[in-house]
Amino acid sequence: MSKSLTIRRPDDWHLHLRDGAMLRAVLPESARHFARAIIMPNLVPPVVTADDATAYRDRIMSTLPDGMDFEPLMTLYLTEATDPADVAAAHASGLITAVKLYPAGATTNSASGVKNFDNVRGTLEKMAEIGLPLCVHGEVTDAEVDIFDREAVFIERVLDPIRRATPGLRVVMEHITTKNGIDYVKSQSDMGGTITTHHLVINRNDILVGGIKPHYYCLPVAKREEHRLALRAAATSGDAHFFLGTDSAPHLDELKEHPCGCAGCFTATNTMSILAEVFEQEQALDRLEAFASLNGPAFYGLPANDDKITLTRGDPVNYPTKIDTADGPVTVFDPGYPLHWHVA
Ligand code: NCD
Ligand code: ZN
User: Fold this and answer.
1) β-sheet with 71-77: strand ranges across
2) Per-residue pLDDT tens for 223-240?
3) For residue 272, which of 322, 343, 215 has the smallest C-alpha distance?
4) CA-based angle 343:213:16, to the nearest 5?
5) Mutual orientation of helices 121-130 and 84-92 as an angle, nearest 10°?
6) Which residues of the chain are under the pLDDT cut of 50?
7) Confidence (pLDDT) at 127
8) Which CATH class name applies to 4-343?
9) E-only strand ranges, the chain
10) So what's the pLDDT on residue 295?
């Protein structure tokens, strides 16, 4: 007997769509399954002002293939020059759903990020006042902090102080990779946390043992197995703090398979099949809907989607190992085991 599961249409609360040829190639991969996504603003140059976000949203919508239904939820990239009034107007008009904080230098295209947090205090206070969430890339960038410790150190040195200094600010700790991050978010009432698909599947051994696997390299980098298990427990628990943010982050293969390879895993194509497999392994299929379709909209004060998708268990799913762009191929994340859940 084939098993099936019907859930409300999912959303992706952290997605990189890029621009131009890459946008054309990856947008249908997300729009096929997801109704909405929080769109990351780390283009070159970044999406900093309301005008930038309007233009980017228009480029996304004009790239969306006919017959596909998808709503990009736009964000602004917080810089030390961000104008609180521009942010407030972009929120009031419905243009933006969140503001994104990258510590300067933390990850791909983050050079314009924040160095001195005193210089963004006015914007953060305005956001707390108007109820606009801050999405945070939670890693310190200090050269002396080990890359595997950067998330845990960020919580103590940056995240907790910012939140204490800005009461009422709603914060999403994005792409959590540690038990420390899970425990911190769980203990706070005005916080959410996103968890990616790939961090539920790989630990740091998968990147490094038996030869380096550039397609498993992303930031924050995958941690020890105990942390992966904490992420799986949180995602499959149904706890309303935690929701899906794939952080699907496409880079051309030639830039991943490179002496200085880019960070990012491209998971848009097979995320829902992988998640169903993970939730089945954890005997938590009945909680997949909370993680992928309900907890995110609840945090953002948006309605859950009305339409539904059905996942059916059957023969292994044939998904492409790569997708083509006009500039070259992009490798689809390989979970390392067959996937049996087909999305209708
Ligand atoms: C992201 C990218 O490529 O834009 N890379 C990644 O490894 N996740 C940036 C980010 O979200 O850190
Ligand atoms: Zn990201």
Assistant:
1) 12-15, 36-39, 71-77, 96-101, 134-136, 171-173, 191-195, 242-244
2) 999 999 999 999 999 999
3) 343
4) 50
5) 20
6) none
7) 98
8) alpha beta
9) 4-8, 12-15, 36-39, 71-77, 96-101, 134-136, 171-173, 191-195, 242-244, 308-313, 322-325, 328-331, 341-343
10) 98
Ligand 1 site residues (CB inside 6 A) read 16, 42, 107-108, 137, 218-219, 247, 249, 263-264
Instruction: Supply 128's token pair.
Output: 């707390």
Position 281 scores a pLDDT of 98
Per-residue model confidence (pLDDT) at position 64:
98
Q: Could you give the CA distance from residue 172 to residue 191 in angstroms, rounded to a whole number?
A: 6
pLDDT of residue 108: 75
Q: Which two tokens stand for residue 307?
A: 């339409």
The protein residues having their C-beta less than 5 angstroms from ligand 2 (an ion) are 247
What is the 3-state secondary structure of 273-319? HHHHHHHHHCCCHHHHHHHHHHHHHHHHCCCCCCCEEEEEECCCCCC
pLDDT for 40: 98
Active site residue 19: no
Q: What is the CA radius of gyration of the chain?
A: 19
Centroid of ligand 2 to alpha carbon of 313 (angstroms)? 30
**3-class DSSP state for residue 121?**
helix
Q: Which atom of ligand 1 is nearest to the CA of 174?
A: 11
Q: How far, in Å, from the CA of 110 to the mean position of ligand 1? A: 9
Domain parsing of the chain, residue ranges: 4-343
pTM: 0.97
Pull the structure tokens for residue 234.
């949180």
pLDDT of residue 336: 98
pLDDT of residue 170: 98
